[in-house]
Design goal:
- The protein contains five helices and nine strands.
- The protein is α+β, with helices and mostly antiparallel strands.
- It has a single domain, classed as 3-Layer(bba) Sandwich (Chalcone isomerase).
- A hairpin with a 2-residue loop joins β4 and β5.
- 24% of the residues are buried.
- The N terminus is likely disordered.
- GO terms for molecular function: intramolecular lyase activity.
Length: 182
């Protein structure tokens, strides 16, 4: 009798571990594991895309796009007034100057960011960047009614109110890094 209770206890524990492991999903790319979903301020975000950025054959970072609503096309991903998050995990040390140059190059195609009030917001974003070590993160999150928030080891932290700057940033990013098949 004690043996069967012991056996069923271990069996139950084994089943519980399997069930729990099945609910904790993650994707892995270049040794970086990112959860399939996360909760931010009580809102459920799903991993929409994950990719590796390389420069001259060097792995620089893995970036992930989390969205509150799953879009069918790029324009929906940009225009939807829902929580959006770009999360970068660095695979090597990157200096502040390298980060600033990469952001300038990547966002240069968006005319809205080259002049007017959005250029000022871009300069604030670039000013918030700092050196980041291997394993460090840069997190850029848009929250409806709360604006764009920049955090992580690669930033001193920044909040930009409103949606226009966030939209311009996401337009530039998704034009440079397509997440939908053409």
């Amino acid at each position: 009798m004690a043996r069967s209770a012991w056996g069923s206890g271990i069996g139950g524990l084994f089943v519980a571990v399997l069930l729990f492991a099945g609910t904790v999903q993650a994707r892995e790319l270049a040794g970086v594991r990112m959860p399939d979903a996360l909760t931010f301020q009580g809102r459920h975000l799903s991993l929409a895309h994950m990719d590796l950025e390389e420069k001259f054959f060097f792995k620089v970072y893995v970036w992930s796009l989390y969205l509150e609503q799953k879009p069918l096309e790029k324009s929906e991903a940009i225009s939807a007034n829902c929580v959006k998050r770009l999360q970068f995990r660095f695979l090597r040390k990157v200096s502040r100057d390298q980060l600033v140059d990469a952001f300038r190059d990547g966002l240069a195609s968006n005319a809205a960011l080259r002049g007017g009030p959005l250029k000022d917001e871009l300069e604030r974003l670039l000013g918030s960047l700092k050196d980041v070590s291997e394993g460090g993160e840069l997190i850029i999150t848009y929250v409806p009614g709360g604006g764009l928030h920049v955090s992580g080891e690669a930033s001193h932290g920044l909040s930009v109110p409103g949606k226009p700057f966030a939209d311009a940033l996401f337009v530039s990013w998704l034009n440079q890094h397509p997440i939908f098949e053409s």
